Structures are given as C-alpha cells and as structure tokens.
Amino acid sequence: MTASISIGTDSHGKPVLVDVEELLATRLLVQGNSGSGKSHLLRRLLEESAPMVQQVVIDPEGDFVTLADRYGHVVIDAGDYNEREIVTMATRIREHRASVVLSLEALEIDAQMKCAASFLNALFDAPRDHWYPALVVVDEAQMFAPAAAGDVSDEARRVSLAAMTNLMCRGRKRGLAGVIATQRLAKLAKNVAAEASNFLMGRTFLDIDMARAADLLGMERRQAEQIRDLERGRFLALGPAICRRPVSVKIGAVHTSTRGGTHKLMAPPVTSGEDFQELLFAPEPQDAAPIAPPRADPPPRPAEEIIRALADSPSAKPAAPELDFGQNEPVVMAVLEEIVADLGDAAPSVSTLYQDFGVRCRMKGLRTPPLDLPAFRKRFAMAQAGMMDAADPRWEPAMRAADTLPEDMLAPFLLIARAAMQGHQCPDDAALARAYGTSSPGRVRRLIDYMEKLGVIVARTDFSGKRSIGVPGLGLSTAVAEG
C-alpha cells in the first residue's frame, strides 16, 4: 500500500499527491475564507487517508460526523459528557487507535475551548506505549489558538492555546501530527502556525492575510494578489509532503457531506401577496395528513458504551474475516433485536440508529454494516413490528400492502398488519406511538385517520370504545381491543 494519497489535480490535470508518512512528521496548515472550500479539502484528506492512519477530528460545528457512516469513525458528542469522561475517552483513543470525531457544536465557545484543551492534553499525555501515529485535524483553529484575547475568558484562552501549542510544537515525538485549518491567518497564534511545514492556501481577500500567506509560501508580496483570485475549491500547495514549489491544486470529489448538505440558490415561488396570505393564514383542514412528529434528541450514549466501542474499533485489532450474506443475516437480526429492545420510549433519528447499528455490527465481527441506510430504514421498521426475519415469506403481503405509505408510517402499519395476520388484539395507542416515534395520543389518532383515508386500513370502534382494525390488502382484521 502506497503512503501517498491524491487530494486533487494541478492546472494540467495531473494528480497532486500528499505523502502521508511525511505529513505525519511535518504537519499541515490550511487557510481559506468561508466558502473557499476549506472544509471540503479537509474532508478529502480525511477520506483518502482513512485506511492508512488513525484520525482524530476536533469539529466545532459538527460538520464531520458523517464520516462515521462510511469510514467507521466514532462520534463523541462533547455536550453529553463531563471532563473526566472526555479525558478517559481520549486516553482509550490512543490505546486502541480508534478514529474519532469530537463534535463540539452543542457547547458555547468557552466550553468548546476548555473541552478541546482537555481532550488534546489527554492525547498528548498518553503513556509512551500508546504513541501510535495519528492525524489530529482541528477545524476553525483560530478559535482554539487565538492570536489575541477576545470575548472568551482568559482561562479558556490560556488552556486552549497551551494545548494547541503542545500539539503543533511537541506532538510529533508522540505520534500526533497536527492538521489545522483557519479562516484567518491573522487571527491564528503565530507560534502555532509557524510549526507547520506544509501549506494549502485558499482564497482570501484581506491584505494582512494575503501577506502572511505569501510569506509562508515563499512568494513575493506582489505575487500575493493571485491568492485573492483563487476560485472556490482551488488552493496553492507547498511543503515537503506535497511539493517543493507552490502549485495550484483543484481539490477532488468526496464521498460524504455535511449533515445539512450544501445550500443552493432557489427562487421563491411566483405568486401574488393575496395568494400567500391565503396559504399562510388558512385554517388547518380536518382531513389534513398528520404532521410528522418532531424527533426528540436521542439520549446521550453512556460514556462506558463509547469507551467499549473505542476498544472494539476496527483499527484496535486485526479485522475479523467478512462473513457472506447468509452468515450476515443472523447478525443483522440479532443487532436489530438489541436496538429495538434498548429503544424504550426514546425516539432517536434513523441516522443515529444506523450509526448505532454499524457499531454493534462491528462488535459482532463485521467490518462494515451489511445494510445501507435505505435498507436499514425498512428493516428497522419491520423489526419494530416484530418482523425480524425479512426473508420470511409471511411478511411479503404486508410489505406490498404498505407500498403507498410514507416511510415514517411503515412501522405502525406493520405492527397492525402483524396483529391481523396472527389474530392478535389491535395494538393500543401506546404501542403505535412508540412505533411512530411520538408520545402524543392526538398524533396517533391523526395517523390512524390518515392511513384510513389512504385505504390501507379500516378502523372500527364500538360504543364501548373497543377497537379493531382491518387491513384490506390482507383481507384480515385484528381482534377487538380497548381503544
């Protein structure tokens, strides 16, 4: 396996390579104004080097948590843990060589700086036996190593700047290679920036930032103007791990993206003010489709669980041989059963559950999740209804009957369909609410009304309040139960 990765192409279309081994010894500084493609560059670097080296990402905005879906990074949401737990996790990260993303988006700036400092110091202070090579990527580095005092407390600035200085000045001997990215070179502490030997400079407009970038690239001041003219996604590269003379690089494509995606221009609908007033202030019709329930924030994963996941990270030990599809299926069924059993009354998002699914699969010996996200959504809905074995032909009619339903209604419908197929009582509102991801009885009633309007169920309630639900697509009905 070569130690070089491609980050993009030069002006002649030739690939520009980064020597990862050299990068570990010489560190990297990335600079670019907002919108220059700086985060895209970091993502490209992380994706390409993921199979080669352990990665630790300090992520103040939660932009890189999606690396977990494809590359197996463990996401640590810093807002859910105290300082002692963060330090413990950082120590285990070095011991087990787990690639992680420390998401700080739930914290205020002071707390972000203190948490990042504690985390970096724990990585730095790991026992000598655990000094394995690792890329430590710090986005928005000017926040954690500011050149001057700002609105943050003196204590937060002091501890954060000390941790960043340790990372860039003394981290190499401990295997820690700093990759820091900043929007403004002028706002980044000079003793931190000066320790990088490799540079990727993107578009910037302020004279002071262009002058510093030109100095770092060894360019004359009059040549600095070209930094202002760089297009989005193009950077000037220099350094022993990349090239010996400045070269223009167009950063290549990536496989993952931020959770929110990229905002595009979208024209507003063409209509008159009167039409908008009618749309905005019209009363809600009685037969409107039920509004999807708001997804509550998932409960934080216990620190002990994340620590166990770190210990079972694929990089911590030789990967188990990949099983074939027939052998994977019992693992999938067992993991789905565990997730459903652990749900309780919580309603985490499907993407969060999918991440949990991937971790549990790896803990059972699978290198990669055997289901992609769309397939997981379907299997998880079936599992909520007790249909663990997707290959069981008994469930095929129920799945066909659900074809016209929105995705979020699949689980409660299958719960009803299974009860009808087995002659059991109609599921009560509490069971349907859990499957639908809500705690509101009103939403459950609107759910039943909406499915009835679609013709996929027929609800019957007698004068005593006992309810049964028929499924026309199956020609069956549940037994009568209290509504």
UniProtKB/TrEMBL annotation:
It holds the Pfam family DUF87. This is AAA+ ATPase domain-containing protein. Residues 24-214 form the AAA+ ATPase domain. SMART domains: AAA. Signal peptide: none annotated. Coiled coil: none annotated. It comes from the Bacteria. It comes from Sphingobium xenophagum. CDD domains: TrwB_TraG_TraD_VirD4 (cd01127).
